[in-house]
Amino acid sequence: MDSADDLLRLPTDLECQTDRHYNYSDGQVSKYLEQINRFHYDNISRIRLEIGDHNNQILRLSKGANAQIRLRPIQASKSHLVRELQVLESGWAKIVPIIRSQSLQLLVLPRELREKIYSYLYTKSETICLEYPDIDVRRSMLPRDPYLYLNASISDPTIAAEAARVLYDSNTFEVFNCDEVNDFLATDHYGSRVLPRDILRRIHMSVSIWGLKPSVSSHIDYEEQFRKYVRRYGGYGYGYAYARTNPAVDAAIELRRLSPLIKILRSNNMAVKFMLERDSPRPHKVDISKWFEEPSIEDLEAVQRDGKLRIPEYRMGLEIPGQPEPTPAQYRVFLDEHYRVFRRLETEEKTELLVKAKKNIDAIFKALECNE
Fold first, then answer.
1. How far apart (Å, rounded) are the C-alpha atoms in residues 306 and 317?
2. At the top level of its lineage, which domain of life is listed (predicted)?
3. How far apart are CA 216 and CA 214, in angstroms?
4. CB atoms < 10 A from the CB of 283, how many?
5. What's the mean pLDDT in 279-302?
């Protein structure tokens, strides 16, 4: 386990670490994982950005008296980063040709066999949880690649694209911050020149609904109530203010806001599982994926009999004293109506943009005719 090839082949998945072929001690595994993270190829771009930030600070602090004293710690930190960057660039300049030549050897194998190799490396038994976007490295939201076959700058571009397709097609991805879904689908996370939206087939999404009973039900009420709590409790009460008012936003608009996204993903043949996490009376998750389906005739009849959801009174996922909890049929009808309004407004917006573009083109043609 002392060679560079063995280091790159070391699995980081927990199920591989417990496999009989990878029976290493915990201390040995931790040591090699630390080396992988420290000398990873993606650190090159990150260190370059850090050096650029240091240059900006040096330029800003170099004015005025005693500039050398103020610059001393920043210059020392920059020198350390420069040395670290030189080590990484010189090391990877030797490693990249080896990995690229080794990856080219896979093209000799049949496509089916290559896909089995990619599946063994990148298919996980558990869901892959999305991380916060790494703004320094391609805004990636996925864990680092320990095998380095996914980056087209390191391995052969054909191999990188094939491996990325297997990764996105064979795994299930879990999203906790649903606002990041669009960015996740449109981001090349590994530099493989493949986007998840073209390949991905399964995704899990979830939102958390707190057990606290909300006292407000709209954006305006929420903002006013939030300011009152902050003024009353000061900086120390910020978390308390958030806890008291935020459930109203989750309860009132979260599912309605996410409904168009889920329906569009499903229209693109993507399997979407949506979980509602509740902590009252005890923490548990509820699968509400069927709430986003198109309402059936039975649903429409039930809503006509029992009535629709009333915006000022309902709370998504929370029981209200004195009121029956809304049925799945009411949710399906309500979310479907909202989606129809969303598509109508989207169509009107696109039509308006096309009309403006046509007017601009006509104006350009008229100006050209006048010049002639």
1. 18
2. Eukaryota
3. 6
4. 10
5. 79
